[in-house]
Amino acid sequence: MMTALSVNLNAVAQLRNRRNLPWPSVVGLARVVLDEGARGITIHPRPDERHIRRTDVFDLAALLRDEYPAAELNIEGYPSEDFFALIDAVNPQQVTLVPDDPAQATSDHGWDFAAEAELLATVVQRIKAPDRRISLFCDPDAGAAGVAAAKATGADRIELYTGPYGDCHDDPDRAARELTALAATSRAAHAAGMGVNAGHDLTLANLPAFQSAVPHVDEVSIGHGITADALLIGFADAVRQYRAVLGS
User: Fold this and answer.
1) Cis-peptide, bond into residue 24, ω within 30° of zero
2) Where are the domains of the chain?
3) Which of 27, 49, 151, 155 suits a disulfide with 53, CB 3.0-4.6 Å?
4) Catalytic choice (36, 51, 178, 200)
5) Is 51 a catalytic residue?
6) Distance CA 161, CA 137 (A)
7) What is the pLDDT of residue 108?
8) Which of 76, 159, 178, 219 is catalytic?
9) Half-sphere exposure for 212 (CA within 13 Å, toward CB)
10) Which CATH class name applies to 4-246?
11) Residues 75-130 pLDDT 10s
12) Is 76 tagged catalytic?
């Protein structure tokens, strides 16, 4: 199965924000990765704008609309009123809902679908549109019960949180256990008629095993790993290498 690559540009924006200067250019590097065949761009604008700024969201939306109409913009975030307003203004093709506290350094867990069922169903109904899919951040061990609760919200996809797998870079036995859990949840989602995304700490080193073990993955969102590789080989070559692993 071919898996689409969406490049997360948060790390690029965070590097830029170390100085009051316009480089590295988030829009410029979006062009680079899209020219090399990435299927989309992922961003997670947080309230403190520590990486992606509100202006970046509009700049990237305009870039994709005007120059890359076949590419998708995926906006991640916690469902606050500010987030709703941003989604309404930008109209991305995909929204990924995450249960993050604004103070978190990065996403580190999926939704408790049973406990948050009412909230998520309300949010999904509010922001879903005919030309927009909704994805819910999902713990790797959610299994069939978690997937059933996620589907009941009306969401279109889950996004498998692969951080625990990525953290197993020096522990192959634990990595194998994490892959087993991810595969079971992905199969359950596919059986339930939901699409499957995945992301967090996927790299050129661990992505091949993930691709081999976890079926039915429609899209991966990769930011930190691809940015780290790009420091050595450049963004264009990094995208080519990740796409080769994904078969896209």
Assistant:
1) yes
2) 4-246
3) 49
4) 200
5) no
6) 6
7) 75
8) 76
9) 6
10) alpha beta
11) 999 999 999 999 999 999 999 999 987 666 667 789 999 999 999 999 999 999 99
12) yes
